[in-house]
Design brief:
The protein is of the alpha+beta class. It has four domains: 123 residues, Rossmann fold; 88 residues, Thrombin, subunit H (Beta Barrel), CATH 2.40.10; 87 residues, Immunoglobulin-like; 111 residues. The protein is built from eleven helices and 20 strands. Strands 1, 2, 3, 4, 5 and 6 form a six-stranded mixed β-sheet that branches. It has a six-stranded antiparallel β-barrel with strand order 7-8-11-10-9-12. A hairpin with a 5-residue loop joins strand 9 and strand 10. Helix 9 runs antiparallel to helix 10. The longest helix has 38 residues. It is elongated and about 135 Å long.
Length: 535
């Protein structure tokens, strides 16, 4: 096979080659016009394919500012180089948080930390989200008898409050920096801005920084963490008016997709977070159980607030469902308050016994549940639970039981007399049945029992409605209906009427129609025309 180049004279001298060269040039010219059009179509098709698949774009950096101040007693640095502690602590924080937070660390040689200041940053609607998550964490390190004592406190701009953390004891020099890092990480409260609210879940955005598609905010908030809800109310000018914590309401993280957070709602209320909001911002921040025990105080809210003495609290796992195996017993504990209405909830014992740190607290009044709320163990050292005062319902229940006891006595005696009257019908004797009927008439009648039941209901229901306790008022109404049903059942007058007819007994107390006392006849009102129909 012979290969020719364009520069060869043999190539240029042949006519066949010239025709082929012309064809090649024409093809090249056509390709120059068709290639741009095909490339544009390819770009459009690729754009459609890419738009069909969602892309993970880098989220904007919303890095809250965190100031960390470590106050170290000079006596604690005798056998501890200052620069080594600072470097180790900074390295641990870098490995834990990375660039998700704009944190700054400073170590100060002071014997005691200063007093807690008041307001630090005014929170306004015009301020960025990073201001809401601004945090200051103070740690104090003391050296006592060969070991280090670590105390912590935290200030969060969202709540504008200082909270005290758990105290730690470190006996090893190698563990001091890691324990300080753990205290700092647990003190920080990850802030989530709630954007959409569903029936039993919410969707929000985590205030943290991200680079590209890697999630640097993962250590701040993980699946299973709990958050508390805070409502921020603004006026028309965008100024913050007030903050309101949603009591007995928690959010549990179910899904994390980088900065997007989906949480499940656990609340004592049916709809704790409203879907339609105006000038209201819904925020949530992470809470970590830190208190070893919680002092729970029970009180009753009536005309005035009083201690709930000897109140019973039934503790169960909030996540336990009714669809569990019937044979398996759900773990539970019953605790009773003292004369002052106080009781202690031990975090470690209850978490291990009930299998969860989120508990269901059911306050019992007699056999009725007057409050059912969730509580995350260890989040608060002191807690007050105020329940509606249902003393009127309890008193009405006692009076209804007494009424039922009297009804049983009357029913038993009445049944004995009716049995004797039936024997007179089966075996006629020369015994006047009048004495038996007179004994029945001496017993309390059905109307008297119904009147007494109605008085109990009206009295208790009025007191409860004045206190706004509609639930207890409905319970009293149901007790009255059950009592009236028993009265109508056991004190029915129809058996007596049949006995009187069978024994030909004429009741002397019955009103007989006389000319002076005729039977009542319905009379039409004046001016009313009664239509007459032809037969």
């Amino acid at each position: 096979m012979i290969h020719l180049r364009l520069s060869d004279p043999e190539f240029c001298g042949r006519r066949e080659v010239d025709s082929r060269l012309q064809m090649l040039i024409v093809c090249l010219i056509l390709l120059t016009f068709t290639l741009p059009h095909n490339s544009v179509l390819a770009q459009k098709n690729s754009g459609k394919e890419q738009s069909a698949e969602p892309e993970q774009q880098p989220l904007p950096l919303i890095r809250p500012q965190v100031d960390i101040l470590v106050y170290v007693n000079p006596a604690a640095l005798v056998n501890l180089p200052e620069h080594d502690l600072s470097e180790e602590l900074e390295r641990h924080l870098t490995n834990t948080w990375g660039d998700s937070l704009d944190w700054r660390f400073q170590l100060l040689k002071e014997v005691m930390w200063p007093e807690v200041p008041e307001v630090r940053i005014p929170l306004r609607a015009a301020a960025g989200p990073e201001v809401m998550g601004a945090t200051m964490i103070d740690l104090q390190v003391e050296f006592v008898s060969g070991y280090w004592e670590i105390s912590s406190r935290r200030w969060l701009a969202l709540t504008n409050e200082w909270t005290t953390g758990v105290n730690r004891t470190v006996r090893s020099r190698e563990l001091l920096s890691s324990q300080l890092t753990l205290a700092i990480v647990e003190s920080y409260a990850a802030v989530v801005q709630i954007e959409s609210v569903e029936v039993d879940s919410v969707d929000g955005s985590l205030m943290a920084g991200e680079y590209n598609v890697s999630d640097a905010s993962l250590p701040l908030l993980q699946t299973g963490d709990y958050l508390e809800v805070l409502l921020l109310y603004y006026d028309r000018e965008g100024q913050l008016v007030t903050r309101q914590k949603l009591s007995w309401t928690y959010l549990q993280v179910q899904q994390r997709n980088r900065g997007r957070v989906i949480c499940e709602i656990h609340s004592a209320f049916r709809s704790p977070i409203s879907r339609s909001r105006r000038r209201v911002e819904v925020m949530a921040y992470r809470v970590v159980p830190q208190a070893a025990e919680t002092s729970l105080h029970l009180s009753r809210r009536g005309s005035y607030v009083q201690d709930f003495q000897l109140g019973r609290v039934y503790l169960t796992n909030w996540h336990a469902t009714e669809t569990a195996d019937e044979g398996a017993e759900k773990p539970a504990r019953l605790q009773v308050a003292d004369r002052n209405g106080d009781l202690i909830l031990n975090t470690a014992e209850l978490s291990e016994e009930l299998g969860s740190s989120l508990l269901k607290l059911e306050v019992m009044s007699e056999e009725v549940v007057v409050a059912r709320v969730p509580y995350l163990l260890g989040t608060q050292p002191e807690l007050t639970l105020t329940v509606p005062d249902d003393s009127a319902r309890v008193a009405a229940s006692i009076r209804f039981e007494q009424l039922k006891t009297e009804l049983l006595r009357v029913t038993a005696k009445r049944a004995t007399i009716i049995a004797a009257l039936k024997q007179l019908i089966d075996n006629p004797r020369e015994i006047d049945p009048r004495q038996f009927f007179e004994q029945i008439e001496e017993l309390p009648s059905r109307e008297q029992f119904l009147t007494q039941s109605n008085l109990i209901r009206v009295s208790a229901e009025t007191d409860l409605l004045q206190l706004g306790n509609r639930v207890a008022a409905n319970q009293v109404r149901k007790m009255a209906e059950a009592s009236e049903a028993l009265i109508n059942r056991f004190l029915d007058e129809e058996p007596l009427t049949e006995l009187k007819t069978a024994l030909n007994y004429a009741d002397p107390n019955a009103v007989q129609p006389t000319p002076e006392n005729p039977q009542p006849v319905a009379k039409p009102r004046k001016g009313v025309v009664i239509p007459q129909f032809n037969k």
